[in-house]
Design goal:
The complex is a heterodimer of chains A (about 250) and B (about 425). Chain A has about 250 residues and is of the alpha/beta class. Chain A has one domain: P-loop containing nucleotide triphosphate hydrolases (Rossmann fold), CATH 3.40.50.300. Chain A contains 9 helices and 12 strands. Chain A has a 6-stranded mixed sheet with strand order 6-9-10-3-11-12, sandwiched between helices. A 4-stranded antiparallel sheet of chain A has the order 2-1-4-5. Chain A has a two-stranded antiparallel sheet with strand order 7-8. The longest helix of chain A has 15 residues. Chain A is globular, with a radius of gyration of 18 Å. Chain B is an alpha/beta fold and about 425 residues long. Chain B has 8 helices and 19 strands. In chain B, a hairpin with a 2-residue loop joins strand 1 and strand 2. The model of chain B has no long low-confidence stretch (mean pLDDT about 90). The interface between A and B is medium-sized, with 32 and 27 residues.
């Protein structure tokens, strides 16, 4: 599904990713852990095509296509989804119109028709229930005045409606209380299936207690310095990152 | 400019009723003594009056047969008076009046009505610094007087529509509206100005006076939909008595030049006003809003929010004056002006102008000029929304907050698609906005 080969990326003239390799197959859940500043969030932003993040070398194949040659919206329409660590507030644009615009764009890319308003409302309401967000949030401005936890649930809501192929969750667990963490984990687990993959970028083992990863990677100094199964996350929790950074 | 100073007066229509003649005469004298504003005049520093440098003539023929069917204006279902090229159009109007409301055209006023109009007319503009008021009076042939009885609760909006057909080139119009809201009355008033898109020039000099009696509540919408070569210089002058409440919604699509002065004078304690405004010049258009809140007495509050989106090589001017007089203690005044520039050549001049002579007051103001936030646009695109549509959604969102707060649903329903169409002609780009 995703094949990252020797990826080098820079932000404001600073090299952040320095030869990152990662292969993600359908159905897999990968956790990416690592110390602050190691490039975890940068990876998500580069994959989503954020302006100001430039790729200086390497390639990324997504569903057999050259991801880096695509515009941001094309990547999303093809099935890539980045749950933001800091979702953006957009006063004046209602959550509802935003969600429908997104769903229609993705559907039309697949050759389907735009969804009818009534059907969409039904879907959106169901999704609200799944992420434990009151329906009144559909009428509010996108993320406007939402608490940290509400914003993260709203990201999950978008993910559920868009049904992407690859979900990159950028520290979705940060700042969540235990109830919200469970809601988010449940949402991810519900969406796990053989055709969909996840990359969970996280600082903590905590999320991985609820969402069991197939692979755990440690990102340090812009490269993946160690990969393992879920036991690696437990080891990191105990020993920290220093021993791996030294190795890198 | 001396030609412009003399010419409209020479060609003023002779149709005015006799009782208006003294007013015309006073206006003529005042106008002739007024120095014509230039870019050195502070209130006109950023606004060129070059567009007035041509010969404008009032329409003197009967305009009842002029076809204005292509001009859109809101259909609100309430009492509606439509004027075409300055002349009353009975066929387009609806004069079924609810109890508590009387509507009189100046031209048809009987002696008693004329006396009442004379008594009230000019009372809100008195002392105004607006230099075009005398010209309005010098050339006034007709006008509308709305008299709302004390305690009347008028459900349906009252609408006054001024259409410019474009049938005559360089048409000059003097529009006048006088509204008296009796004590504790409630009403919604919509003033709409619209033109056809024939490209004909027209100069409208509009003056509205709104008098709010004690405890009166008025929702007032003023929609400037004139396009292209329309020039509108006008003002709304509002006098608020004690505990009266005014909500104002102002919209100006761009044209050659629109200069609107809004003056609210709080003359009774406990008065409250809210003014929201949106301006959308593009091309080489200019929109200029000058607002002034006179806090003359204690315990009054005002809140103003104006937002503009300025595109292409257009320019916008916003001047928000708040004048708190020495005795106006416990005043609370807020003013916010936000601007979005969608082109490198677009220009906005925004200035808060606060004069505060009382010490126990709260007064807040803020002004911003910005472009679309790239991170916000990126966020929409990461969800698959195409760049162009994201930009339309964000531009619309910038003003939509004010539109959503418009209490009159019928006006809101008219305004929303109109605004959406301003941002993109391709309906695919606006289909998710409504």
């Amino acid at each position: 599904m995703l094949k990252i080969d020797n990826l080098h990326a820079r932000v404001e003239n600073e090299d952040i990713l320095k030869g990152l390799n990662l292969t993600v197959n359908p159905g897999e859940v990968h956790a990416i852990m690592g110390p602050n500043g190691s490039g975890k969030s940068t990876l998500g932003h580069v994959l989503a095509g954020r302006p100001g993040y430039s790729v200086s070398a390497g390639s990324v194949q997504f569903l057999g296509e050259d991801l880096l040659a695509m515009d941001t919206e094309e990547r999303a329409q093809l099935g890539l989804f980045l749950a933001f660590q800091y979702p953006v507030e957009i006063p004046g644009v209602s959550n509802m119109e935003f969600l429908k615009a997104a769903v229609d764009a993705v559907r039309e890319r697949r050759g389907e028709e735009a969804i009818g308003s009534v059907d969409f409302l039904k879907l959106a309401r169901e999704a609200c229930k799944s992420v434990d967000l009151d329906q009144s949030f559909l009428k509010r401005g996108v993320n406007e005045g939402f608490s940290g936890g509400e914003k993260k649930r709203n990201e999950l809501l978008q993910m559920m409606l868009l049904q992407p192929k690859l979900c990159i969750m950028d520290e979705t667990d940060s700042g969540l209380d235990i109830d919200a963490l469970q809601v988010v984990s449940r949402g991810i687990n519900e969406m796990r299936d053989a055709g969909r993959a996840f990359i969970l970028v996280t600082h903590y083992q905590r999320l991985l207690n609820f969402v069991e990863p197939d692979h755990v990677h440690v990102l340090a100094g812009g490269r993946i310095v160690r990969s393992g199964d879920k036991s690696l996350a437990l080891e990191l929790e105990e020993r920290g990152y220093a021993w791996l950074e030294d190795a890198a | 400019m001396s030609d412009f100073m003399q010419q409209p007066i020479r060609e003023a229509p002779e149709l005015a009723p006799a009782w208006l003649r003294p007013l015309q005469q006073r206006g003529r004298e005042a106008w002739q003594q007024t120095p014509f504003p230039t870019r050195k005049t502070e209130a006109w520093k950023y606004t060129s009056l070059q567009a007035l440098q041509q010969r404008f003539v009032a329409a003197d023929r009967d305009s009842a047969s002029t076809d204005v069917s292509d001009i859109e204006f809101p259909q609100l279902g309430g009492p509606t008076l439509v004027f075409t090229d300055g002349h009353y159009s009975p066929a387009l109007s609806s004069r079924e009046l609810p109890d508590g409301l009387s509507v009189v055209r100046f031209a048809e006023a009987d002696d008693a009505q004329a006396a009442r109009i004379r008594e009230l007319l000019g009372s809100a503009v008195a002392g105004s610094r607006h230099v075009f008021v005398p010209l309005n009076e010098a050339t006034l042939a007709d006008g509308v007087f709305l008299d709302i009885q004390p305690d009347a609760r008028l459900e349906a909006p009252i609408q006054i529509v001024w259409l410019t057909s474009g049938a005559d080139a360089a048409l000059a119009l003097s529009q006048r509206l006088l509204v008296n809201c009796g004590a504790h009355s409630e009403a919604t008033l919509v003033e709409t100005f619209a033109s056809s898109d024939t490209g004909a020039t027209a100069f409208t000099n509009g003056v509205s006076e709104l008098l709010l009696g004690e405890g009166a509540r008025l929702q007032h919408c003023r929609l400037h939909l004139e396009q292209d070569n329309a020039v509108h210089i006008g003002g709304v002058h509002i006098r608020q008595s004690a505990n009266s409440q005014l909500y104002g919604f102002h919209l100006a699509l761009g044209s050659d030049l629109k200069r609107i002065d809004l003056v609210v004078d709080h003359q009774g304690a406990g008065a409250h006003c809210e003014l929201d405004g949106i301006y959308l010049p593009r091309g080489s258009e200019t929109v200029d809003y000058h607002t002034c809140i006179e806090h003359s007495v204690p315990h009054c509050t005002s809140r103003e929010r104006f937002r503009g989106i300025v595109g292409d090589e257009a320019s916008a001017i916003f001047n928000g004056r708040i004048h708190i007089h020495p005795q106006a203690q416990k005043t609370r005044a807020e003013l916010s002006n936000k601007n979005l520039l969608t082109s490198h050549k677009a220009e906005v001049n925004t200035k808060p102008e606060l004069e505060i002579y009382a010490d126990d007051v709260q007064c807040a103001h803020g002004a911003t000029v910005a472009q679309l936030d790239p991170m916000t646009r990126h966020y929409l695109r990461t969800r698959g929304v195409p760049r162009e549509e994201a930009e339309v959604m964000l531009s619309y969102g910038f003003i939509n907050e004010l539109v959503e707060d418009l209490p009159c649903a019928a006006v809101r329903d008219f305004v929303k698609p109109l605004l959406a169409s301003r941002f993109a002609r391709n309906p695919r780009l606006t289909r998710h906005l409504l």
